[in-house]
Each structure stands twice: as C-alpha cells, then as structure tokens.
Design brief:
It is built from 15 helices and no strands. The protein is an all-alpha fold. The protein has a single domain, classed as MFS general substrate transporter like domains (Growth Hormone, Chain: A), CATH 1.20.1250.20. Helix 1 runs antiparallel to helix 6, helix 5 runs antiparallel to helix 10 and helix 8 packs antiparallel against helix 15. The longest helix is centred in the last third of the chain and has 31 residues. The protein starts with a helix and ends in a 7-residue tail after the last helix.
Length: 379
C-alpha cells in the first residue's frame, strides 16, 4: 500500500480547504462583496459538490481507472482557477468559482474509493492516512493567516494556485490499484437508496453540513469584526484541526466500542453545542478554544463514522457512487444550503441568532440519525 503517496494527496487536498474555507471570504470582502454576495459565492463551492462527484463517480464505476479521472480533474482545476486573476465583479467571480470547484470536487470521492481499494480489509487504517489531510489544513491556516496579516487578503490568490498545482503533482505519484473482483449480481443502486436507514443517514449528514453554513462562510469575518487578528484566527482554525488529528489516531477504538450510529449521533449533538459557544461567547477566548476543540466531533468523528457507514452500505461496483453521493448530499447540498441561508440570516437576524439556528439544525440531524439509522448498524 503506497501509504505516503496516498497521504501526500490528502495533505495537499485539505491544505486547499485550509486556504479556501477560512480565508476566501476575507478575500471576497476585500474585493467589495457584502455578506449576501459572500454567502452566495461561498455556496457555489458547496453546490458544485452536488453534481460533480456524481458525474465523476458514475464514470469511475463504469470506466474504472479512477486515478486518470483524479489527475485530469486536478489539472483542469489548476487551469480554471488561474482565471481568478482576471475575474472582476460578481458574475465573473461566480463563473470561475463554478468551473474550478466543479473539477476540484470531482477528485476526493474517487480518491476515497482508491484508498479503500488499497486498504482492502484494513479499513481501520483509513484514519491514519486521512489525518495527513488534517495536518495539511493546519499548516495552511497557520502560515496563510500570518501572511494575510502582513500582506493583506490578496495573498490568498497565489497561495491557492500553488496548492492546486501541488494537488495535481501529487496525483501523478499514485497509480490505479488493481481492481477488486465483485459479484456481478448486486442489488440495484436505487434499491439500496430506498432503505429507510440509508435515507435517514443522508438526511442526517445533510443537516450536519447545513449547520456549518455560518461557520464556513463567516467565522473569520465574525472574529475580525470582534478585534481578533488574522494570525490568531488562523491559530484557532488550526486548533480545531489539531483536535481532529488527535481524534483520528484513536477513531478505530471509538467505532469498535460505540458503533458508527452512536458516534454520528454524538457528533451532531456536540455540533449544536459548538455553534452556541461561538455565537454567544465570542468575547471569551476560553470558550472559543473549547468550541474549536469540538471540531474533533463536528468533523473528525462525524466524517470517520460517515465514511465507515458508506463503506458498509455501498459495496463493489457501487462504491464510487456511494462515496460521491455522500459528498454531494452532505458537503455539497448541505453546505450550499447552509452557506446561502447564512448569508441572508447574517444580515437580517445577526450573528448570534444565525448560530442559534445552526445549533437547532444540528439537533434535528441528531434526532434523525437516532431514530432512522438501524441499531443493527452499531458496528
């Protein structure tokens, strides 16, 4: 198993998230966009995940050669993002963001399927590979936060382009794994989707990512408005992901002891607590630090449990589409709806009520997961 080559791709892929999620909103505000426009533009990054992973997932399942898809998508992402240097105004920015995110979002679900093909029965080792993505995120938020404080938000542009190039180069180092044989007679994909437990799972992950809307779109803006420096904001983002890395090290023990269903329910409940702490205690460094440590639950345990469930629900030739559907429903549709709604709520209701609504959405997701995901899936 090419541990370091797989880990390298995750490192750079999530390093890009470490640039886009905390700091892209700051760049957009620097370019004169208001809160509604920022919410709409950030929603594009999420909305393309609704379509792109499913298109590329279908191609991967039917054509094979998933790494060719990953390499092609990564290269086109580099080329389309380069147009951001000439994009001015809302519609030009929206067009470029749509293009580069469509191809960028195609990569990860296919790479997840590749990783699990290499892992075979050693599924518990996934977290040890995936944690390098978290380390890439940490490095980026700390370094880029300091650069922004010194040079201004426009430095985000060359930083993101550099990381896009690194993603493409790292994809060239991973070869397609030997395909695993799987039964020719499998249950139809749509029949699998009609199972109540799977419907409940997708509703729960949608609600989780929708609750993240105010955080992804406005957390850095919210912190700067309350007098925190970009360097400190970067350190807060990094603190959350450091907690996530520590969680990944012991994740297999949590899954073995409590099961994926209970881990998912707990993640959603802790997300509600996190949004309330951020929204209502922004002047307390201690409580903000606690909120960031809860990132270990709102992303770490949540994503690991979700990937675990998807791996069990979707087998054989359905694996690529299963991973793609999880990405599109949660990070795609959920993230887009959450960012868009946050943009309107932020202006109309204020930050505190926006985060309170996000907490309510997370609690609703916990209730759905508790009631609809079968207890037999506490594996």
């Amino acid at each position: 198993m090419p541990y370091w080559r797989l880990s390298g791709f995750y490192f750079f892929y999530f390093a890009l998230l470490g640039a886009l999620v905390p700091y892209w909103g700051l760049l957009l505000r620097e370019r004169g966009f208001d809160a509604v426009a920022i919410g709409e533009l950030m929603a594009i990054l999420m909305a393309t995940k609704v379509v792109a992973p499913n298109v590329w997932g279908w191609l991967g399942d039917h054509l094979g050669h998933r790494m060719r898809i990953v390499r092609a998508a990564s290269l086109i992402s580099v080329l389309t993002f380069s147009a951001m240097y000439w994009a001015h105004g809302f519609w030009a920015t929206a067009l470029v963001m749509t293009l580069y995110s469509f191809f960028w979002n195609a990569s990860l679900p296919q790479f997840e399927a590749i990783t699990f093909t290499y892992l075979k029965a050693r599924v518990a080792r996934y977290a040890r590979i995936r944690m390098w993505g978290s380390i890439g995120f940490i490095v980026t938020v700390i370094v880029l936060g300091a650069l922004i404080e010194r040079h201004g938000p426009e430095v985000v542009l060359p930083a993101v382009l550099t990381i896009f190039v690194a993603i493409w180069l790292s994809s060239m180092l991973v070869r397609d794994p030997d395909p695993e044989p799987h039964p020719q007679e499998q249950q139809h994909f749509l029949q699998i989707l009609r199972r109540p437990a799977i419907i409940g799972f997708f509703v729960a992950v949608f609600l989780m990512q929708a609750s993240h809307g105010p955080y992804y779109a406005f957390y850095s803006i919210y912190m700067t408005d309350h007098g925190y420096s970009e360097t400190l904001i970067g350190q807060f983002w990094a603190l959350g992901v450091i907690a996530e890395v520590a969680l990944f090290v012991v994740m297999h023990r949590l899954l073995d002891r409590f099961g994926a269903r209970m881990v998912l329910v707990a993640s959603l409940a802790l997300a509600a607590l996190r949004w309330l702490l951020i929204g209502w205690f922004v002047d307390s460094l201690t409580l903000l630090a606690v909120a960031q440590l809860l990132h270990a639950a709102t992303f770490g345990t949540f994503h690991a449990a979700s990937i675990h469930l998807v791996h069990h629900y979707f087998r054989g030739r359905h694996q690529g589409r299963g991973q793609a559907l999880y990405s599109s429903v949660s990070f795609g549709a959920g993230g887009a709806v959450g960012s868009l709604a946050a943009g309107y709520a932020w202006d109309g209701l204020g930050a505190q009520l926006t985060f309170a609504i996000a907490a309510g959405v997370a609690i609703a997701g916990a209730a759905v997961a508790w009631r609809m995901i079968d207890r037999e899936h506490d594996f």
